[in-house]
Amino acid sequence: EVQLVESGGGLAQPGGSLRLSCAASGFTFSNSAMSWIRQAPGKGLEWVSTLYSASANTVYADSVKGRITLSADNAKDTLYLQMNSLKSEDTAVYYCAKYEYGLGYTYWGKGTLVIVSS
Known about the structure:
Elements: E1 3-7, E2 10-12, E3 18-25, E4 33-39, E5 45-52, E6 57-60, E7 68-73, E8 78-83, E9 92-100, E10 104-108, E11 112-116
Parallel strand pairs: 2-11
Antiparallel strand pairs: 1-3, 3-8, 4-5, 4-9, 5-6, 7-8, 9-10, 9-11
């Protein structure tokens, strides 16, 4: 059974940092494309970043580029999202999702809430 479990959310001040984690199980993590997607209060889903394991290429949304780093520890089957220089507009529930070519996001975690506020 595929499971994605996010953690690391919480309250942070503007300009601060948080690191989100996504523990994966039930599939070959090291061969998978993995993404972070967020949903701000009252808004739709927004793609944040994707790690394409096959090429080790990582892509970011313009809204977070330069402030967020996506990485993976294949030994731990864990995906990370390091968020720096946080802004109030980063407030959202952050979801980890498995991406499959031709199918889209096939598995999602339950999300972790990030609140950026002074």
